[in-house]
Amino acid sequence: xxxxxxxxxxxxxxxxxxxxxxxxxxxxxxxxxxxxxxxxxxxxxxxxxxxxxxxxxxxxxxxxxxxxxxxxxxxxxxxxxxxxxxxxxxxxxxxxxxxxxxxxxxxxxxxxxxxxxxxxxxxxxxxx
Length: 128
Description:
Radius of gyration: 17 Å
CATH class of the largest domain: Alpha Beta
CATH architecture of the largest domain: 2-Layer Sandwich
Structural class: alpha+beta
Shape: globular
Strand order of the largest sheet: 1-2-3-4
Helix content: 25-40%
Distance between the termini: 37 Å
Number of domains: 2
Strand content: 15-25%
Number of helices: 3
Number of strands: 4
């Protein structure tokens, strides 16, 4: 196990994306981050586990051989997935962390779904 001065073992509920690992490694090594990198360093979370570096995390599932291509965005309280013609799902991660009940058509969640769709669209534009 690598020992890093000042960092203690711990757990966090902070959101992270795969693209965040490279900037984190550079940060740990004291190297500067190239401007074209879209990830964020997770070092603040390693130092203080309750720190948040992201409000949402984006996931892409669009490999050529996969039938259900789609996109997902996750916040601390909800998950929204869009599979194009295959449909959409929205889960309340506080009440339903196991993702059993799709709330996409539930009128009580209409505003949350609208915001999730908007946030997914914005994040996809950022990564293109």
